[in-house]
Design a protein that fits this description.
The complex is a heterodimer of chains A (about 270) and B (about 270). By secondary structure, chain A is α+β, with helices and mostly antiparallel strands. Chain A has helices at about 20-45, 70, 95-100, 110, 125-135, 150-155, 160-165, 210-215; strands at about 50-55, 60, 65-70, 80-85, 115-120, 140-145, 170, 175, 185-190, 195-205, 250, 255. Chain B is about 30% helix and about 15% strand. Classes of the chains: A alpha+beta (about 270), B alpha+beta (about 270). Chains A and B meet through helix 1, strand 1, helix 4, strand 9 and strand 10 of A and helix 1, strand 1, helix 4, strand 9 and strand 10 of B.
């Protein structure tokens, strides 16, 4: 057997008999069931939100040419958009977005057979996106909004003047997000007559809904174990092909590979 | 472009201006934040559960021979076991477990980086597991408990006698259960001295949060879209069994697994 990794220690656990454990577990089960029902209720409220008709004609750059927002639905009536944090020329891959989309490949078949299409959108030009896609071996649809206002209209990219003035909108409040691109998830609906509606968007910790790994980690004795320096997934998450290979992650989630010579390290 | 699938219709939506939508969305955001904090608190409570020392020496059949429970930890101190419903003689794994199985591979490298090892465990013999795993193209670790009591001790397999008497011990209660196998997830910890502890197990709808696809669907206008189905998950197929123009039999209900034939999970309704 290999030696155990020396990681953080779990606070001295309370070890009990099976019978005592069952008593505690059953008490917790009651709380868990209550939580499950609260979650069902919140989800119902989310779906009860009103909709806004999308009036602009968004045209994206895909790997094989132009694609409209309507085409991203790909024959389905519901569209899930992952706003992938990647601006033009951005070399440092966002570890949070990368972690999020690593969850998607396995479930695409199921979503697509339940009337949901999925696409990632980033502001970087399509050739930059394709380079990352190839490196990461991702296969989900991923298009560029480089030539349209999509990212700005859905509040995941910000104009420098709005940032400076503190009037950039992110997660339903105004301020200076400090970065030109941030992460988010948006949902659209297309009716039989081809009208498209924006139904939902979530940002910030709202994106944890799509980080299934947290559901697992939250059950482990050590939990998320994010003890600094950032106290977020930036403490540990790496692009899936870069674990154990060094590099560093900024508080913003941007990953710098070993050998990166940019000014952030100095 | 594929043809529009004929699915359920969405209720007449309430279409409003951007500013009215924002007002409604902000109100909801406050509730979402409250919910996120409630989840944090529940997760903390889960981790405060006491532990039970594992006294039995479980030995599983793995792809390359015998493996103890301790071996499954590899160099990690935390272990997730997914109790995958695949009984001896079943032709394929339960579709619901397979749906969840489709969630594992993409995050394994990240879980490993968090001091977490993962293994699926089923009561079917190893050749059956290997054949099904190959068909599904899965990479995650998967061992057989065919020659030990693990599945019975962690209440995911039931004897014929228990089933006949309606006395299956599942999800912390005694109930009738329509299958010899049930789904579950258990968590173990191994300390530096090699002692192993059982820290957590969840069953039935306790596994719902692990189905990331549901987290996506829950936010879409149609949601899970299962209300008209006789069984919540009866739309789910093995990922290699969806076909063009596939339709869902709304009346399809639970079927007991038959030897070398289709099998299906049981799904507890919300209580």
């Amino acid at each position: 057997m290999q030696a155990k990794l020396q990681k953080t220690q779990v606070k001295s656990p309370k070890v009990v008999s099976q019978a005592d454990w069952l008593v505690a577990r059953k008490q917790l089960l009651t709380k868990e069931k209550e939580f499950t029902r609260q979650r069902d209720a919140l989800n119902a409220e989310r779906r009860a939100l009103p909709w806004v008709k999308v009036e602009k004609q968004y045209v994206f750059d895909g790997s094989s040419g132009k694609l409209t927002l309507a085409q991203l639905f790909n024959g389905r009536s519901q569209l899930f958009i992952k706003h992938f944090m990647m601006g033009p020329g951005q070399k440092q891959q966002c570890v949070g977005c990368s972690l999020e989309v690593d969850h998607v490949e396995g479930i695409l078949d199921h979503l697509e057979n339940h009337d949901v299409s999925y696409a990632a959108v980033a502001r970087a030009p399509i050739d930059e996106i394709e380079a990352v896609r190839k490196r990461m071996d991702w296969h989900f649809p991923w298009v560029s909004s480089y030539n349209n206002d999509f990212n700005y209209d859905f509040n995941v990219s910000f104009k420098p003047e709005h940032m400076t003035a503190g009037t950039a909108d992110y997660n339903y409040q105004q301020g200076n997000p400090g970065m030109e691109d941030l992460s988010g998830d948006s949902i659209f609906y297309k009716d039989d007559s081809g009208q498209i509606f924006h139904t939902y968007s979530t940002f910030g910790r709202g994106g944890e809904e799509f980080l299934g790994i947290y559901r697992f980690l939250d059950l482990m004795p050590k939990g998320r174990d994010e003890n600094g320096p950032h106290h977020s997934l930036a403490d540990w998450a790496r692009p899936h092909n870069m674990y154990g290979k060094g590099g560093m992650v900024e508080a913003t989630g941007r990953y710098h590979a070993p050998g990166c010579a940019c000014a952030v390290h100095t | 472009m594929q043809p529009q699938l004929q699915k359920s219709k969405t209720d007449q939506p309430n279409v409003v201006s951007q500013s009215d939508w924002l007002a409604a969305r902000r109100e909801l955001l406050a509730e979402e934040k409250e919910f996120t904090r409630r989840r944090d608190a529940l997760s903390a409570r889960r981790r405060e559960l006491p532990w039970v020392k594992v006294e039995k020496n479980y030995v599983f059949d793995g792809p390359n021979g015998k493996e103890s429970l301790s071996d499954l930890f590899r160099d990690k101190s935390q272990l997730i076991v997914y109790h995958f419903m695949l009984g001896p003689g079943w032709e394929q794994g339960c579709p619901g477990c397979s749906f969840l199985g489709d969630h594992f591979d993409g995050t394994l490298v990240h879980l490993n980086a968090r001091d977490v090892a993962f293994s699926a465990v089923s009561r079917a013999p190893m050749p059956q597991i290997e054949a099904f795993k190959k068909r599904m193209g899965w990479q995650f670790k998967w061992v057989s408990s065919n020659s030990n009591d693990f599945n019975y001790d962690y209440h995911v397999s039931f004897t014929k006698d228990e089933m006949v008497k309606g006395k299956a011990n599942y999800n912390y209660g005694t109930r009738e259960f329509p299958s010899e196998e049930a789904p579950g997830l258990s968590v173990f910890y191994e300390d530096a001295a090699g002692q192993i502890f059982h820290t957590y197990s969840a069953y039935a709808r306790g596994l719902d949060i692990l189905l990331g696809a549901y987290n996506f669907l829950d936010l879409t206008p149609k949601g899970r879209d299962e209300v008209t189905l006789a069984q919540p998950m009866s739309w789910v197929r093995h990922h290699d069994r969806y076909e063009n123009g596939y339709t869902v039999d709304q009346a399809a209900t639970y079927q007991s697994p038959k030897l070398a034939s289709d099998s299906c999970c049981s799904h507890e309704q919300p209580t």
